[in-house]
Amino acid sequence: MLRISNHYVSKVAFSLLFVEVLILIGAFYAGSAIRFFDGDDFMLPKLDHFLISACVFAASVVFSMSALGMYQLNFNEGLRNPFFLKLMPSFAMGFGILTLVFYIAPELYFGRGILLLVFLIAAVGILAARTIFFTTSEFRFLESRIMFLGIGPLAKECGDLALRTASYHKYDVAGYVAMPAEECLVPSASVLQVEPGMSLVNLARKHNVSEIVVSVQNRRGGTFPIRELLECKLFGVKVTDAATFFERETCQIRVESLQPSWLVFGGGFDQSFVRTFMKRTFDIIVSTIILALTMPVMLITAALVRLEDGGPVFYSQERTGKGGRPFKVHKFRSMGTNAEKGGKPQWAALNDPRVTRVGDFIRKVRIDELPQLWNVFKGEMSFVGPRPERPYFVEQLIADIPYYNVRHSIKPGITGWAQVRYGYGASVEDAVQKLQYDLYYVKNNSLFLDLLVLIDTLKVVMFGSGR
Predict the structure, then answer these.
(1) Phi and psi torsions of 63, nearest 5°
(2) Of 203, 218, 250, which one is at a domain's C-terminal end?
(3) What gap in Å lies between CA 182 and CA 148, rounded to an integer?
(4) Residues 56 and 24 in one domain
(5) Which of 152-156, 193-197, 336-340, 441-445 has the lowest mean pLDDT?
(6) How far apart are CA 394 and CA 245, in angstroms?
(7) How many domains does the chain have?
(8) Where would you find the membrane-spanning parts of this chain (predicted)?
(9) Beta-carbon neighbour count of residue 235 at 10 Å?
């Protein structure tokens, strides 16, 4: 895995993206050369910004493919129907982006004749690249050989995670190393036999292991092999903590067995002036653009909400913000006017019967969240961050879930990592899952991660799968 601005990115997915960027730029040059072939040789058009136009084309298509989830690779799916169903819409979306770019910067325009050829060559190139990629992946040469220290519940969870077949970061599990006083919850056949006097580094060499994941629940006492793990690290075997392994593979931070020292001494949690300034700048720019683009949609929505039942257009509700400070969040009203007639706050749920017909649609495509742009401009929220919760539920969740209050160390957001990765939260159990994503974002938040959330949010809106 690669780390880009603290966020874990698969080397495989990153390599595929890099190759496809080269294919798209190459397709642009090839299409232009074919279009302007004069019978003797290939003559490229005399454009002052030809390379820039090629890069804009590549960026538009890659952005569109990302928004449709084409870099969230699934080895089981391979090149079956979903790939073809997403490729053409992504090209159509890329064409729309290019049209907007050419309207803003007409000097980058290179002609419709070229564009058709370029898209055709690009489609063939991407299809060929993905065919080669998924075919070679079946040979399993990208797998890492891994070993787990421990045989208890934590080791079993980590092992199951490593063996997920849909993951594009595959592992070949060499086995598990038994630790004293641990109940064996992994298959007995997977427990490695350690010969008398054999060190951990020799065991790793014997099984050709490149990484050891320390998945021992209790590390107290004199039986934990800290010196042997250090020896492994010195001899080139990577040693990874279970919390880091879980963070790397799921983009979550597991709260059940999390050690406070891991949060204290680990990296991340950047709250520097530079990061704060960049995030505020990002919030203002993105919110301004979205406000300008969606103003007609907001006006139509306001009219429809009012016409459906004659009730108020907007709905304001108290939420908990940064530092635990309360503020009023604003949304288009999506529920009936007597949604909480009993006076007691209720969890919002999927297919909630309190939701109106107009409300059901605007919730699915996130239109109901647009008035929160005003909260962003006021500085109460960011565009990306943990979703703000109601104080009534916050008190309950802080009491029930460890580290829940950590999510209040930054501003809440209109959209967030948990919202694009997890569905509606209607219980404490759902809140735990969403918190694990929120902790990952709080720890690793960056401009790069904000952009990824923005792209995933676009995918949620396009497919009507609002969170």
Answers:
(1) -60, -45
(2) 250
(3) 13
(4) yes
(5) 336-340
(6) 29
(7) 3
(8) 12-30, 50-71, 83-104, 110-133, 284-305
(9) 12
Phi, psi of 104 (to 5 degrees): -75, -40
The pTM of this model reads 0.85
Q: Tokens 């292991």 identify what position?
A: 209
The residue range of the domain holding 184 is 144-250
CA distance 117 to 447: 35
> What pLDDT sits at residue 423?
67
Q: What is the pLDDT of residues 122-172, one digit of tens each?
A: 999 998 988 888 777 655 556 789 999 999 999 999 999 988 755 555 788
Residue 185: name the closest of 216, 213, 210 by CA.
Answer: 216
| Pairing of the two strands 211-214 and 7-9 | unpaired
Amino acid sitting at position 287: S
Do 126 and 153 lie in one domain? The reply is no
Residue written as token pair 């919850």: 185
Structure tokens at 220: 């107290």
Q: Which of 464, 456, 462 lies closest to 70 in space, CA to CA? A: 456
Residue 407 DSSP class: G
- Cα–Cα distance measured from residue 218 to residue 223, given in angstroms and rounded to the nearest whole number: 10
Residue 263 domain-assigned (yes or no): no
Q: Which residue has the tokens 């706050």?
A: 345
Which residues are CB-neighbours of 186 under 8 A, at least 6 positions away? 148, 151, 155, 156, 159, 176
**Of 397, 390, 443, whose CA–CA distance to 417 is shortest?**
443
- Return the number of other C-beta atoms located less than 10 Å from residue 261's C-beta: 8
